[in-house]
Amino acid sequence: MNGWTIGIIGGSGLYGIDALEDAQSIAVDTPWGEPSDELLIGRIGGIKFVFLPRHGRGHRIPPGDVNHRANVDALKRAGCTDLVAISAIGSLREELPPGHFVVVDQFIDRTVARPPSFFGPGLVAHVSMADPVCPRLSAWVAQAAEAAGAEVARGGTYVAIEGPQFSTRAESRAYRGWGGDVIGMTAMPEAKLAREAELPYALIGMVTDYDCWREGEAVDVATIVARLHANADAARRLIVELARALPPERSASPIDTNLDEAIITAPDARDPAMLAKLDAICPRLMR
Fold first, then answer.
1. Which of 209, 256, 260, 268 is catalytic?
2. What predicted TM-score, i.e. pTM, was given to this entire model?
């Protein structure tokens, strides 16, 4: 064992990984409800991968109903050390055309109706999201995407909207004015929960459209689906290249223990029921 177990959260159009060796599907129960689907576990070379389709196979779960807490908990229970999210995104920049991939490094969270944290009354924690992705994992993902033949932008701000509707033109232009580079509906609170679960997280987005900020253009599902088929092939190659790019041994990341400086509730005031629900997220709290 080399210490790597990479969780892959597959977005729209990516519902499986053909390259997995000795693949098996397992159902995982979590205290937060059901994850989006069974986990598909296997290996590519010497690297263990755990795959979860964010919307479920067949894309049956809309963005606002994705149980992100259950998804992240299930991946942590399966032994994941790091998470790579793959998402369909719209572009807010002329220089990021459909077909490009963007390794996101910042977020603007506009979601309002999704449970944003594993913590709450009885056990309070405040993790830093100043730098919301893992820089070393993001660099490997970018390298892998380039090796897979994709045009890759390293860095970009992702605007996360509630959906399921696409933006109005006024909203799309406003997000551009805020400094947004790409837009999607699923990265939040996923990235926040990964940080709370002490899982280094990287997100690579596959550009499917220009959103609607350009005069005369609008987003439609047919266009997105057509682009997704082409992008999904590159995404599958990316995962294979990532397995090749990772070093033989996984060195520790500061994110592995970031809860040590995030929990503010005194040990003797912590709710036992909350602690029990966090048995996979941070087992150190149980000791």
1. 209
2. 0.96
Q: Which two tokens stand for residue 180?
A: 């947004």
* pLDDT attached to residue 146: 97
Number of domains in the chain: 1
- DSSP-assigned beta bridge partners for residue 89: 207
For 35-46, write each residue's pLDDT tens digit. Answer: 999 999 999 998
Out of 73, 211, 220, 271, the active site residue is: 211
Tokens encoding 113: 């109706």
105 carries an active-site annotation? no
Where would I find the H helices in 180-220? 190-196
β-sheet bridge partners, residue 153: 102
Return d(Cα 60, Cα 63) in angstroms, integer. Answer: 10
Per-residue pLDDT for 87 more than 90?
yes
Per the annotation, the verdict on 256 as an active-site residue is no
CATH value at residue 115? 3.40.50.1580
Distance from chain centroid for Cα 114: 15
In terms of residue numbers, what domain contains 84?
5-286
In whole angstroms, give the CA distance from residue 110 to residue 159.
7
Residue 183 class from Cβ within 10 Å (0-12 exposed, 13-18 middle, 19+ buried)? Answer: buried
φ and ψ at 251, to 5 degrees? -85, 160
88 touches 208 (CB < 8 A)? yes
- In the chain, beta strands by DSSP E: 5-10, 21-26, 39-44, 47-53, 82-91, 101-104, 106-109, 152-154, 157-160, 182-184, 201-209
List, in sequence order, every residue forming a beta bridge with 209; answer none if it has no partner.
90
CA distances from 3 to 108, 134, 242, 269 (A): 32, 17, 15, 35
